[in-house]
Amino acid sequence: MKVGIIGGTGKMGGLFSRVFERAGDEVACSGRNTRITAMDIAAKSDLIIISVPIHATAEVIRNIAPHLSESQVICDLTSLKVFPVREMLCSRAQVIGLHPMFGPSVRTLEQQTIIVTPARYSQEALDRLTGIFLREGARTTITTPEAHDRMMAVVQGLTHFVTLSMAETMRRIGITPAETEPFMSPVYQIETGLVGRLLSQDPGLYGDMLRMNPFVPAVLEACENAVRDVKSSVLSGESGLFEQLFTRNTEHFGNYCTEASSLTDSLIEAMVKR
Known about the structure:
The chain is 58% helix and 14% strand. It is an alpha/beta fold.
């Protein structure tokens, strides 16, 4: 299979280039400074993968879509799926959206999750694509673009919003991570480490995830209301209000509370032994 990756000179594109090369496919990559162009990729590839920033994805797809045929497959690696899939469906090609739930620094796809949103496809094409990921040790989740974006509003939107809010709060009260270090527990170190990890990434990517997902505003409104209610339960001085709120959430999370305790105990043990 001839695989063409538009944006293949970037980190994520490079990672997937190596994945398909290991599968025995012939891989060509285009980038800002390559002789091969996106149109060359569109003309010569059986499988076309779009690996560009979220805000540039629609334009790249629109440029090549009219030139694709029914025998080709087009995919994207964008963190959102509704709008890229909609744009890809304007072509005649088979359309399978992809979202790798990991960054390009991973050493292996072992136990990593790739979300797959097939929209117009043959079973053979879908099996061929997912088979490559499964042989690399990845897990695939099949869903629709709409269900994907709704879930990403929580998995990414809410998570990144809360993490950034923690950083912004510490900045506003004038406390640095270094100042808290002598007081750190392993759990707090994990929490603060996630903040630092987020802030070491590209702000444009995370801004696009939050701004361009149409399901994020409703989630953030729920978050704002939740913060207000938690704050009220704390400032009320009534232990019963806080305990009721805490218990409601314990019941909502159910058995995951026990699973999470076991998982984080393992993480803490590994940190202590380091």
